[in-house]
Description:
Distance between the termini: 54 Å
Radius of gyration: 22 Å
Helix content: 25-40%
Strand content: 15-25%
Shape: globular
Amino acid sequence: MSGRRHSRLALFEDRRDAGRQLAQALLRFRGSDPLILALPRGGVPVGFEVAAALGAPLDVVLVRKIGAPFQPEFGIGAIAEGGIRFIRVEDVEMIGVSESELDEIVARESQELERRARAYRGELEPLPVEGRTAIVVDDGVATGGTAVAAARALRARGAGRVILAVPVAPPGTAGRLGDEFDEVICLEEPHGFFGIGQFYVSFGQLGDQDVIDLLSAAQAPAAAGGSDAGDPPAVEERAVEIEAGPDLVLHGDLRMPAAPAGLVIFAHGSGSSRLSPRNREVAAALNEAGMATLLFDLLSDAEAASRTNVFDIDLLSARLVAVTRWASERPDLSGLPLGYFGASTGAAAARCGAAELGERIGAVVSRGGRPDLAAPRLGEVSAPTLLIVGGADWQVLELNERAAEQLRCEHETAIVPGATHLFEEPGALERVAALAGDWFRRCLA
């Protein structure tokens, strides 16, 4: 396994840049008739560049993460096409997931797997892998569950060798996955790894059409030189260090458009960080709408390593309050109306923070929030609150409907039709951003 260790965060401009860099480490396979198998959606732009550099065909191997009930970001396994099912039994037992709950999640994700197969391939069969070197490509590895499921699916189809190639992964990934792959190739193994997106400058979500377009372009090399997305919004971005307590410095990203109408402070969900691609996409939309945004790490590196801290709402809300007070004391921010945007467990912290600070917080928006974790303080929130929930995220939808009954402030519940907990469906996150922008513009004006 090859690797270079770095202390810096952004290692790649975007997924296609990562693919071009990864391709350089795979040139020895050129001429050996490899097959590039990308994991949709994020792995497809990476695989596209690798396939182009190696002159190899590109296909997808379809996988879906199995997330824990009420906390889909926490992966407890994965499934892959061909009926492959990989479950981490120790995680299931630790969380207390029942067999019926697990079967229900697997059934739901299997339906999405079939839908994607129809969308990406139509009536076509997957490219044959019998006896060939199958190079599995993704934009990075976190827990490795989907990679394991992909490897088992390819071996079941008769692949000769199965190799994993990714731009970035946590230290020790080769050892953890070495039994599943013949070789693991990773460009970067940085310490302080919390999520793949933290190592990319641009890590926006992809839709089904992006995957379809890249697979089509891979079959027509002359069309492979397409352009990337347009220029980012004209805002000033600053990395900030926030003194949140004795000997405690939290890292944040402050984005300031000209003459902002307010400041929205983000509280990310469990398993994420200030570099959450979903929150950053929403923040960019708010910047375009004239709002300043602050994304920060709720926990230090050492604290985030403990799953107990990730769910400690009292700790998280105390950090959010400390950061809010820090922002209020900055000359460039002190006069701005304040709003909170919270996701998952971060939404519970946002509600508790709003209850603590009262009228100093002008608005709260929750995306797929866990209001049950803030139940004792829901009635104390005075800031107008918008609860955004996916229509297909029925468990969290039920929790939010119950929470709405406990709120005494102005509040609304907005349901994004067909969206699941992570709002991965085409157009779902854009709808979240639009709803949040409208709410903050109205409440913070």
